[in-house]
Each structure stands twice: as C-alpha cells, then as structure tokens.
Amino acid sequence: MNDLSANSVPFDASLIPRAAPPGNAAVWVLIYSELTEFALFFLIFFVAKWFHPDVFRQGPLHLNTLAGTLNTLILISSSFFVARATRAIKIGDHPACKRWLWWTISAGAAYCGVKTWEYIWNVNAGIHSSENLFFSIYYYLTFNHLLHVLIGMCVLLWATLRTHFNAYGTDDHEGLEGAAMYWHMIDLAWIVIFPLLYVVR
Amino acid sequence: MHKAKDLNLVWIALILLTAASALIAEYSGPSAAIVLFVGAITCAKGSLVIDRFMGLRSAPPVVRWAMLSYFVVFPGLIVIFSLFTDTAGQ
After folding, report:
1. In a domain, A31, yes or no
2. Mind listing the pLDDT tens digit for each residue in B24-47?
3. Domain contains A35
4. How many contacts, defined by CB atoms under 8 Å, are there between A and B?
5. Structure confidence by residue, pLDDT tens digits, A170-182
6. Tell me, what CATH number does A183's domain have?
7. Which of A17, A159, B34, B75 is close enough to B39 for a disulfide, judged by CB 3.0 to 4.6 Å?
8. Range of the domain at A139
9. From the CB of residue B36, how many other CB atoms can be counted at a distance below 10 Å?
C-alpha cells in the first residue's frame, strides 16, 4: 500500500481555490449597483445634515419609531427565512425550501403593511415630504427601499414557483441563491437606514 | 454550509441587537457614547448578515470585503456626522 503521507507536500492554504460567491456574476453586479445607489443617498443625507443640523436633529423625534423597529425586525427575520430556504435546497429538502420562501414573501408583505401604516400615521401627524429637507430625504429613501422590497418579493415568487416545479436541486440552485442574495441586500440597506433615520438624533 | 442551529442563533442575536437600538432610540438622550454604541450595533448586524446569512465567509475575499467595508464606512459616517454636526450646532 502506498504511503500517501510520505509523498505529501507542505500544506498551503492559499492554493485552495475559494468558493465562488453565491448566485452568479450578474446578481453581484446588480447588488453592488443597488448598494451604490443607496450609498449616494446616504451621502446626500450626511451633506444635508451638515448644513441643516437642527432640522436633522429634530426630524427623527417626529417619526414613528415603533414602525421603524417593527420593519427592522421583519426584514431581519425575512433574511433568516431566506437563509433557511437556501440551506434547505442545498440538502434537497424541497418542501422545507418552499415553506421558508413563503415565510420570506409573507414577511415582505408584512413590511409593506407596516410601511403603509407608517405613511398614514405620518399624514395624520402632519408630516409631509415638502415640510423640510429631512422629511424629503426620509420619504425618498424609504419609498425607494419599499420599491426594492416589492421587486424582491416578485423575484422570490418566481424562485418559489421554480422550486415548486423542481427546477432547483442540491447541485443546481444558482437562481434561488441569486434571489436570496438580492433579498439579503434589501435587508442590508435597511440595517443602515434604521439608525440613520430613526435612532441617531 | 451553516447548521440550522447556527442560523437560529444568529437570528436571535440580530433580534436582540435591533431591540437594543430601538430602546436607545426611544429612551436615551443624545450622547457620544450612545452614538458610538449604535454605530457598533449597525456594524455587527451587517457583518452577521453578510457572513452568516449570505454565507460570504467562504466567498472570494474581494467579494466579502467589499460588502463588509460598507458596514464599516456607513456606520462610521453616521457616528462622525452625528458627533460633528452636534458640535457645530452647539
């Protein structure tokens, strides 16, 4: 019997090829583009805050912190659900994958419901986008984010449909991973938006 | 691939970090320590989602670090602009 250890070369971790990122190249171009778009609006927020510190110090005091917190908890949970869906497809558990995907889509719908309640609450509290620069940026950022949630829900619905028809398997689930990565990106953008608009005063 | 139990624990950690941020938003007054704490929480939450939920710990380093740097730069800017504009306002 050959003694393999006798012929082995010293271990060099750098020679081990790293795994490709989940999803595909197109999804990652989209994710970086979307995060760049959000980054530009964050920068606009900072510049506006620099020139109007009082407006930006008072603005968050008028927002519905409960709605912001609920939506943060919902999006964090939805990210967990879609991570569980991705894990389920990797072990070939299609029913569990579909179940987790439906939980994710339901969380997206809950986010839209809370956001609608928040906007109605704002109107009743006399908060309008034209009131000052803080609220203009607040409405632009949150509405833009809401549109991304709606797009993400459509993408996840498509992935759920394909999972239902067994289009994904343990070795072939690039499309589902891509949809999951896009959804995580939506959660990541909100993780910055929450302290920016609701917490830091 | 992460174990289901690991994902569950990360989810609980993220919920607790969010609750901490919310409590700060509701009950604390403005202070440099609070702003630094919120910035650290934001950084930690982003890192957990990127490494654990997205599974980028085993991805090519350039992909992972591009994402992680987002959660160093923007929480950092939140802290800097909050502290400096407060100083400017006073």
Report:
1. no
2. 877 877 788 889 999 999 999 999
3. no
4. 140
5. 888 999 999 999 9
6. 1.20.120.80
7. B75
8. 42-199
9. 14
